[in-house]
Amino acid sequence: MEELLLTKKHDEQRQGEAYLPSYNIAAKYSRLFYIESYGCAMNFSDSEIVASILSAEGFGATSRVEEADLILVNTCSIREKAEQTVRKRLTEFKKLKVAKPATLVGILGCMAERLKSKLLEEEKLVDIVIGPDAYRSLPGLILEAEGGQKGVNVLLSRDETYADISPVRLNSNGITAFVSIMRGCNNMCSFCVVPFTRGRERSRNAFSIIQECHDLFNAGYKEVTLLGQNVDSYYYTTDASATPVSFANLLESVAMISPDLRVRFSTSHPKDITDDVLHTMAKYDNICKHIHLPVQSGSSRLLQMMNRNYSREWYMAKVDRIREIVPGCGITSDIITGFCTETEEDNEATISLMKYGEFDMSYMYFYSERPGTLAHRRYKDDIPEAIKKRRLAEVVETQNKLSQDSNKKDIGKTFKVLIEGDSKKTGSDWKGRSSQNKVLVFSKANYDLHPGDYVNVKVNDCTQATLLGEIVN
Ligand code: SAH
Ligand code: SF4
Ligand code: F3S
Fold it and tell me: Cystine design at 375: which of 5, 65, 190, 410 (Cβ 3.0–4.6 Å)?
C-alpha cells in the first residue's frame, strides 16, 4: 500500500501538479485517526485544530476507534476525577493495542502538559505526549513514533493561537460551532491548574476570528460560541500604534456578520466583564442574552483565598448591573464546595448568593486539590470529603430548585428558538435553544422546518432542565 501511494506521489510531482513535502506523508493517505476530548469546550475546540493539522497530513477522522491507526485522547486535569476518567479509558485502549500493535496512542491536552514524560512511564501504551501549545509538532512526533521513538512535546508558548488554522469540525450538527478567541489564563485562581497547563494568556488575531465566523455562516452555521478562559480580558493589537480590539469590539464585529448568526461567549470572569460588553449585548438581538459568570463561592473570605479578586458584594453588584443593562439575561455559574477552611457559614453564604443571582443553571463540584497550584502550596486541604460532598448536595439541591423556579417563570412566554435537531426522545419533536441558553423541546407539528431555522415557541410546561412548548407564528 505504501509503495503504491509513494509511486503516485512521484508521478504527481513529475506532472508538476502538486508539491509534496519531502518526507514521506504520502504513505499516510489511507490512515485514520480517532480523537476523544475531555474537559472544557476549549479542549473540544483544540481537537478540531488537531483534526485540521492531521488532515493536512492525509489523516482522516474516524468515529470507530477499532479501525484507527492513531488514537488520540485530549485530556483534562481540572479535577482528580477528570484524570481518573482518562486513565480508565486508556486501559480500554490497551486491548486494542494488543490486537493491533501498530496503533499509535497519543495523549494531548492538559494532562499531557501536567504530567509530561511521566505519562510515558506510567502508561506503557502511550507513544506520544503533546501539550496544548505544541500541536503543530504532532506530524513530526507521529513520524518518530512510527519509527519506534516515543515522543514528548509539552513546550508552552507565549504567542501560539493557531490563528491561521481552519478547524475541521468534529461531531458537528452543522448549526453551532465553537471559535477559540484566546488561549491560556493569567488569573492564578488558587485552586486552578489551568494557568499551569495552558500557559500565559494570549489573544488570537481579531481578523482571523471574524473571518472564521464569516466562513462558518457562509457554510450554513447559525451560531458561534466565542471561547476563552476569561473572554473579557480579550485584547488584540497589531502594534503599539494601532487601536486595540477589546472583547466588546470583537463581539460587535462578529454580531455584525449577520442578524441570523447568533453569538455566544464563555467564560466571563466577574471581575473583568465590563459595561461596554453588557451594552453591546443589549444593542444586538443576535448576541445571546446569557452570561456564564462563575462565582465559585459566596463567602468573601473564601473568594480572597481563592484569589478571585472580587467579593460577594462585588458579584452581587455585577448581577444587578447585568439585570439593569441586559433585562431578561440568563445567568449561569460554577461553584466549588469544601475549599480549604470552608465553614458551614461559608457554605450558607454560597447558597444565599446563588439565590440572589437566581442562577438558571450551575456546574457544581467539590474541591479537588491539584498538585502545584497556589492552594496546594499555601493551604491545607482540610475539609473531609464527606463534608465537601454533603455541602455539594445542599448546593445542588438549591440549584435544582432555582432552575425549576426559573423555568416555571418562562411558562406562557414566547421565545425565538434556533432549531438544532431532533429531540433525543422522539423524532416528532425538535430541540433548540433560546437566546438565554435554555433548551426547548416542541412538536414539529405540520410545519416544514429544518435544523438551522429560527422559530417562535410558546412555553406551556417545563421540567427542571427543559422548557416544553409549541410553535406559534
Ligand atoms: N475560566 C473559568 C473556569 C474554568 S475551569 C473561570 O474562571 O470561571 C471550570 C470550573 O471548574 C471552574 O469554574 C471551577 O468551578 C471548577 N474547578 C476548577 N478547579 C477546580 C478544583 N481544583 N476543584 C474543583 N473544581 C474546580
Ligand atoms: Fe482557572 Fe481562574 Fe483562569 Fe478560570 S480564571 S481558568 S478558574 S485560573
Ligand atoms: Fe480541563 Fe484544561 Fe479545560 S484542565 S477544563 S481541559 S483548560
Answer: 190
